[in-house]
Design brief:
By secondary structure, the protein is mainly α. It has 18 helices and no strands.
Length: 434
């Protein structure tokens, strides 16, 4: 059983558009985001980074792990699309209100009132993001072009507004408000494109049985994602608590911002090809072949990022930030080593969800959290922000070995060896070219 040429072209085109959107996002982040960071300085940027970390920890209570699940359900139960979308939207809206409350409450207990106000402004974006369930519909229909156009519009408007804020020397509060503005523009565009496709949100229906069904499926993902988000954001929070220097938080966030810029690559590719992997479920051999090809892209993509980061890291960070963030280059060059496990892990997570083995994701996240958090509590008080970066890399590679060996070890090793073989990458290039 071979894929139809039209279907293959759809996946390739979808990948292209999603990569274009993510590329525009990262370019905007570099060209405009860096200007914002330099304008704010390490201390004000540290407050912004800390606020985003608070929200990041609780974000799972808004997303509820529904992203890939909703896409899968729309592919397999398309006749129930309005119930699936309506229920997912209702759950995310309720969860987003909870995120605002939890983030602000935590900040109010630990920080000055001015910082809590920043957290509140940032958290408003989560409410607008509830409407992004429309994007799951576009993914299931392999219409990444619409998402790409939407995000490019949002990025263009956001960039212009941010440049204006810098020009008029706006205070920190205005930059915090930008998160909500971006989310609102994205939501408005999604509604426009959804209606242009002949669909109406008035057809959505919230169903309690459907909500129960989705939440039961999502429990392992919710648990694992919460652990993941806690682990990802604990470094910033612990630096602020142990070092008590918002300048250090800003330095760390600046270096991390650049190293994480590459993460759009695996997310975009996996989101684009996920429907293809699911649709090949009746042909296990072809499905495994496509999976190995995906892993190969992840493996070699991570290697390229590490090598490039080590060679050009100092120059890039120095060029972008100048002398205002002297600690950022070291953080970048340490943290860039996490690219390989993270690239691989993005594809592995998609596969575990596809075969409904979400429990392995939870186990992996728990293991990673134990390693990273333990290391952070030991290394941050001794090494400061350098200790946080080293902890993240250590946890990433422990997780990497787990992902290869935990589920069907013999098959996992074989898949890894095939993916790491340059021949698999050549096959991918031939497939895309054809």
């Amino acid at each position: 059983m071979q894929e139809a040429p039209k279907e293959k072209n759809n996946y390739v085109s979808n990948s292209f558009w999603m990569l274009l959107e993510k590329s525009a996002r990262i370019i905007s982040g570099i060209l405009v985001g860096i200007l914002v960071v330099r304008y704010l300085g390490d201390k004000q940027f540290g407050i912004l980074t800390l606020g985003l970390s608070y929200i990041g920890v609780f974000t799972i209570f808004s997303t509820l792990g529904l992203d890939s699940l909703v896409v899968r359900e729309l592919l397999t139960r398309y006749d129930k699309k309005y119930t699936i979308l309506g229920t997912a939207f209702g759950l995310r809206l309720l969860g987003s209100i909870g995120v605002v409350a939890m983030s602000c409450t935590y900040s109010l207990l630990r920080d000055p009132l001015s910082t809590t106000y920043i957290v509140f402004l940032l958290s408003l974006s989560i409410v607008f993001q509830s409407i992004t369930v429309i994007d799951f519909y576009f993914q299931s229909q392999v219409k990444g072009k619409l998402t790409a156009i939407n995000q490019v519009i949002t990025l263009a408007v956001s960039a212009l507004v941010k440049l204006g804020l810098i020009y008029w020397e706006a205070p920190l509060e205005w930059f915090a408000t930008m998160a909500g503005l971006e989310a609102a523009i994205t939501a408005g565009n999604q509604l426009f494109f959804y209606h242009k496709e002949g669909e109406k949100i008035s057809q959505w229906k919230f169903s309690f049985p459907e909500a129960k069904y989705l939440l039961l499926l999502a429990i392992p993902i919710i648990a694992s994602s919460f652990v993941q988000l806690l682990t990802q954001n604990a470094d910033t929070i612990l630096i602020a608590r142990f070092i008590r220097d918002m300048g250090q938080v800003g330095q760390y966030g600046a270096g991390l911002r650049i190293s994480q810029a590459s993460y759009f690559i695996p997310v975009a590719i996996c989101a684009a090809v996920f429907p293809g992997i699911v649709n090949n479920r009746e042909n296990p051999d072809l499905q495994l072949k496509r999976l190995v090809q995906l892993y190969s892209l992840m493996f070699w993509g991570g290697v390229v990022m590490i090598v490039g980061g080590m060679i050009f890291g100092d120059w890039v960070i120095g060029f972008l930030y100048g002398s205002k963030f002297p600690g950022a280059p070291l953080i970048f060059k340490i943290h860039i080593f996490a690219c390989l496990p993270i690239f691989w892990g993005t594809a592995w997570g998609v596969w575990m969800i596809t075969i409904q083995k979400q429990k392995y994701i939870l186990w992996m996240q728990l293991l990673s959290a134990c390693i990273i958090l333990s290391a952070e509590f030991i290394l941050i008080p001794k090494l400061g922000m350098k200790g946080a970066a080293l902890s993240a890399v250590l946890g990433a590679y422990v997780s990497f070995f787990f992902m290869i060996l935990a589920y069907k070890p013999k098959e996992g090793i074989k898949v890894f060896m095939n993916a790491a073989n340059p021949k698999s990458l050549v096959e991918v290039m031939k497939y895309w070219k054809g």
